[in-house]
Specification:
GO molecular function, one term: hydrolase activity
CATH class of one domain: Alpha Beta
CATH topology of one domain: TIM Barrel
Strand content: 5-15%
Order of helices and strands: HHHEHEHEHEHHEHEEH
Distance between the termini: 155 Å
Family: Belongs to the glycosyl hydrolase family 6.
Protein name: Glucanase
EC number: 3.2.1.-
Largest sheet: 7 strands, parallel
Organism: Streptomyces coeruleoprunus
Oligomer: single chain
Number of helices: 10
CATH superfamily of one domain: 1, 4-beta cellobiohydrolase
């Protein structure tokens, strides 16, 4: 029995030794295989990165800089992690805490959870609209339009309608009417705002208006005028509007005493301040006569005394007169230069009846042989000339072919024919 046991022990020992030999052989095969694969990967990587010479040989690779992970990078005090830059090496994770984010992961971008909100694209500020961005306003209530509507069969009607009635023109406010002036002005400016157009309004109620001439009248005194002007200003609305402030109020002021002239200057300055305070978009222009009247320096002195440079937007010339546009433009620039005000000051010129130029001296009242001038526009193309306007409505009498301001169809027809 002992022999049998001995034999069995030897067999078990041989079987164990055989198993060990097989295990060692398998391990050796695995090591060889891994080494072969590593060698293949290294050779492949080296071939890709190394430039190949013309003869097919691989050139020696330039040594790459040391890996950033091998260097110690000092962390900044306030670490702004750039989205595409690796972060500093993470600190060891405390037991039970979440693992740190991978250093290769980009920072959250706009629109991703945890990232910054997308910022709306900046919109450039809208530039404020100027006078030239709007057409001038044609008010539907004028003497010429009333005549056109009531004379459909008159042979003069087509020419008067097409050449005068369809043109934008100023609206005059000549009555001293404190109770109704706000509503009357607002009716005009509201219509212009609805039409997206620029109205031209003419307040004409200064005390001692026209020095007792054909257009005499106005407020009874300057305190009453101030109140009337405040009511006028309340009707301006908030849109663009051109205010032709009191025609002849400065050019014809030499009929006044020195004291009355000073009072008028102060009253006009207050009026301009009131108008601008009520509507900052209002463009207020002061009286500068015309090129055939006072020298530029004389007019500039009166304008300065009335606050035109301080409170106004410029001057107007040639109202109810006939001087050619070129002469008026040159004159307006001389007045502005003599005034010495800011460069923003400009001028508007009445071109309604100056197509044939001025008549002989002294012939100012509905003279014969005149013609319509350049149509109204804010696009003059002339330096410091803001607009050519029809301030005096063609066909409305100066006082010789009918009451001042009334419509004279014969005169309108003659002007339209030229």
């Amino acid at each position: 029995m002992s022999g049998v046991r001995t034999r069995r022990r030897r067999e078990r020992l041989e079987r164990r030794r055989a198993r060990r030999r097989h295990a060692m052989a398998a391990m050796a095969s695995t090591v060889v295989a891994v080494g072969a694969v590593s060698g293949l990967l290294a050779a492949s990587d080296d071939t890709v990165r190394r430039p190949v010479a013309a003869d097919g040989s691989v050139r020696q690779r330039v040594a790459a800089p040391a890996s950033p992970r091998a260097a110690t990078v000092p962390a900044p005090q306030s670490p702004p992690v750039t989205r595409h830059s690796p972060a500093a090496r993470p600190a060891p994770t405390a037991p039970g805490s979440a693992p740190p984010a991978s250093s290769a992961r980009p920072a959250p971008g706009p629109g991703t959870p945890g990232g910054p909100r997308p910022q709306p694209r900046a919109t450039p500020p809208e530039e404020p609209l100027t006078l030239a961005d709007h057409p001038l306003y044609r008010h539907p209530g004028s003497h010429v339009l009333d005549w056109v509507r009531s004379h459909p069969e008159d042979p003069r009607r087509p020419l008067i309608e097409s050449r005068i009635a369809e043109m934008p023109a100023a609206v005059w406010f000549t009555a001293y009417d404190p109770a109704t002036i706000t509503a009357r002005v607002r009716a005009v400016t509201a219509g212009a705002e609805a039409a997206r157009a620029v109205p031209v309004v003419v307040p004409y109620a200064v005390p001692d208006r026209d020095c007792g001439g054909a257009s005499r009248g106005g407020a009874p005194d300057h305190a009453a005028y101030d109140a009337w002007m405040r009511a006028f200003a309340r009707g301006l609305g908030s849109g663009h509007v051109i205010v032709v402030l009191e025609p002849d109020s400065l050019a014809l002021a030499d009929c006044l005493t020195e004291r009355d002239r000073a009072a008028r200057h102060a009253s006009l300055a207050r009026a301009a301040r009131t108008l601008k305070a009520a509507n900052p978009k209002a463009r207020v222009y002061f009286d500068a006569g015309h090129s055939g009247w006072h020298p530029a320096a004389t007019m500039a002195a009166g304008l300065r005394a009335a606050g035109a440079a301080a409170y106004g937007d410029g001057i107007f010339t040639n109202v109810s007169n006939f001087h050619r546009t070129g002469d008026e433009v040159a004159y307006a620039r001389r007045v502005l230069a003599a005034l010495g005000g800011p460069s923003r000051l400009g001028a508007v010129v009445d071109t309604s009846r100056n197509g044939n130029g001025a008549p002989a001296p002294g012939q100012w009242c509905d003279p014969a042989g005149r013609a319509l001038g350049q149509p109204p526009t804010t696009g003059t193309g002339a330096t410091r000339i803001d607009a050519y306007l029809w301030i005096k409505l063609p066909g409305e009498s100066d006082g010789c072919r009918g009451p001042a301001g009334s419509f004279a169809p014969d005169y309108a027809y003659a002007l339209a024919r030229g």
